[in-house]
Protein 1
Amino acid sequence: MPKRRDAVQNHEKLLAAARVVIAERGIDAPLEEIARRADVGIATLYRNFASRDELVQALFERSMDEVDALVSEIGGDESAWDSVVNFMDRLGMWLLADPAMPTIVTRIGIIDPERRPAMRFTGAMTGIVEQAKADGDLRDDVTSIDIVLLATMLGSIGRYGSEYVAQWRRQLDIVLDGLRPEGAPRRPLAAGPVDLDSYHRMLRRSPASS
């Protein structure tokens, strides 16, 4: 039997609120706070998700749907190298927009150790990476796992707040230069360096990660 419209709306509000609260307060943030942010009662939360783990699993599945959509759009660029750049940019921006995701993935690894979320990325990227190497545009010793790991690491800067997104672009440019074979042209950096005071402010803003 289909859910009533208000039930569907409550489910979506809870997922949206959970992403925000987990990003702010960590994976063990109070469920009562999630319900409050969603403007529903705690009983409504438990009708939708019987436990914290069930809520985390729902967040993970929703995010993986988004990943599948992202990956499906990679590969239509002029060159394999352009597809590598596009993938790292898209994945990093997705993580910037959802800073709760790394801690959700970590918890999923505890809830269900058989999960292999990175396979969604690496399966699509392996052929592209190999072609970029064959074209002479990518270092011979780089793998698709390296590409996913680097994009994930860079995307974690979203934990520090939206005003530091420009630093993501700068760090991405530096990493992309490191992926190029010797003699390839350097990329201009997208932003100026962060100063020491700003870096310390970033550290103070970083929420709990587990």
Protein 2
Amino acid sequence: MHAELLQSFSVMLALSNVQTAEALKGVLMQNRVRRVASAKDNQDAISQMQDHHFNMIVIEEGFPYLGAADFCRFLRLTNTPMSVAPIIYGIRLAEKKRVLAGRDCGASKIVLMPLSAGTLVGTLQAAVREMRPFIQTMSYNGPDRRITKAKTYFGPERRKAQHGFMSVKEQQRILDA
């Protein structure tokens, strides 16, 4: 990733293992990420989010108190630019129910824990490079869960007219504000 793009990142690490968070924080700082903060629990994360704007969040499913899925849903419902920030969701076991839980709570990317430095940096790059339109409805707030569009569909694209649809350009404008 280009250095100037990395310098625009402000990343919140919400991991259950404080030592892992500190090690990954060092790796991100070496990669010239502008700001990296780690939170020990949901209350600490909320407190830090009141003081600082984060445009990328890394959260682990075992994150203390609320857990990652509920915290991810909470983030998506806030009235801040962080509600559209890419969220990297870490799971401990590659089970279908865990992947679906991460997808359904509004995560942008799902990774298997423990997370290596290379995986984290690569996933951050992919989350920005592969941003998807954002959907805001009564039952779901998060990136469009459809990974690819079917090339054989020739009917009207109804989702673009749907209330709650936010384009990638609009998300980037909000995150850069």
Protein 3
Amino acid sequence: AKTVKGKGLKFLENKNGWHGKALGDELVQAALTEIPNPKFPNVKVKKPINDTLKKINLKRLNLPEFKVDDEIATREAYGLGLLNLAEHDPNIMVLDAEVSNSTHAETVKKKHPEQFIECYIAEQNMVGVGQGLAVCGYTVFMSTFAAFLTRAHDQIRMAALSNSKFIVCGSHCGVSIGEDGASQMGLEDIALFRALPNSVVLYPADAVATLKLMELATKQTGITYIRTTRPKVPVIYANNEKFLLGGFKAVKQTTKDKVVLVGAGITLYEALKAYELLAAKGVAVAVVDLYCVKPFDHTKFKQFVRRHGGKVVVVEDHRPEGGIGEMIAAGLVDEEFVVEKLAIDTIPHSGTKDELLNKYGIGAKHIVEAALRSLKRKR
């Protein structure tokens, strides 16, 4: 199709300088005389049927339980959480962009197909469908690879401006996905979702955190983003662990800490490895799991840092721009704290998870180096 601006009107057709300008009464009348049929068809729209959705008490959820040190990817836990939610609440609707075998949304697709919509490789359309369902009162979960959500960001942004409520899960984030390469690595997603008005950004590190944060997401009033990881990781939390909006977890701490290591998702495990390496050098550090990126209790975190050495190393599998490091540094900027930030600042290549974490400077040895470097810096 060839678009001709102002087609059919002599004073407008193919003319520049008219974009965004009101014609005024005189030119409107002139335009109407040139339009063959100025009358619009009388289209009748049927009044929507008001189907009241059944209210469900989600407090009765019996979430799957895990044993500490069980190996399970957070994307797998996401699938288990979806299935559990769908079986307890018929108002749960799950959408996926034809990667449900990887995001693990296929758990609902297989057992409750009436609560699953396959949106195929059309992420923009998926968000539109999800927004429509949300307006009708459904609790909507949408999923695809974090990298592919960039295609739908226009729709997500406009949904945020409309005060929409739905949950988006981006899986296969960061260089930790390994061999698939840079095109599949979601490295900008946290920045994109943090920038949305009234958004919530959650980043679970293990299976327990994933289930608890999914449940927390259903209680939010805007757009919630959940970031899941491809590799299997050990469960570190007990099944009764509680996760509060805006909070963080001190996974390791002593009264002699010199530095606070902050990890999220896959990098929490690198921080825990660094904790052991630093302990062998006689350096005591605290380790924080930053499971809630937005909102974040900066006051509480600042108090924690002050009690544990006043120095921070933030490591993330994400670009430095708009990521966790910038968020933490912004909260500490008015104080005399030392902040070291480790992130992916180049275009990554293909490799194994461990190869890439080390190659791009977010592995345990780099965290150790950053911690030791921070000790030499003056506040």
